[in-house]
Amino acid sequence: MMGSLSIWHWLIFGLVAVVVFGGRGRLSSIMGDAAKGIRAFQDGLKGDGEGDKPAAAPQVLPQTDASKDTTKN
């Protein structure tokens, strides 16, 4: 019985065949989702280049009469 396949071999083979070929391209949709995830990860690593630019210097705003402290004499 060295070369024969048992029921377990046939069940595993059938399961693999269903995953690969069954259900409206199930494997292709899984691979497509994985590719989208990898692409999003790579885009996240690249960023928009904003981290390479120095931050803008803070600007001082002029004071108005409403912003002056009137409690001190």
What does this structure look like?
The protein has 73 residues and is an all-alpha fold. Helix content is 49%, strand content 0%. It is built from 2 helices and no strands. The protein is rod-shaped, with a radius of gyration of 32 Å. The N and C termini lie far apart (106 Å). The relative contact order is 0.05.
Radius of gyration: 32 Å
Q: Which structural class matches the secondary elements?
A: mainly alpha
Inertia-based shape: rod-shaped
Q: Tell me the strand percentage band.
A: under 5%
What is the helix fraction of residues, given as a range? Answer: 40-55%
Mean pLDDT: 76
**How far is the first residue's CA from the last residue's CA?**
106 Å
| SSE ordering | HH
Which stretches are low in confidence, meaning pLDDT under 50 for 5 or more residues running? none
Q: What is the number of helices?
A: 2
Care to count the β-strands? 0
Q: Summarize the biggest pleated sheet.
A: none
What oligomeric state do the depicted chains represent?
single chain
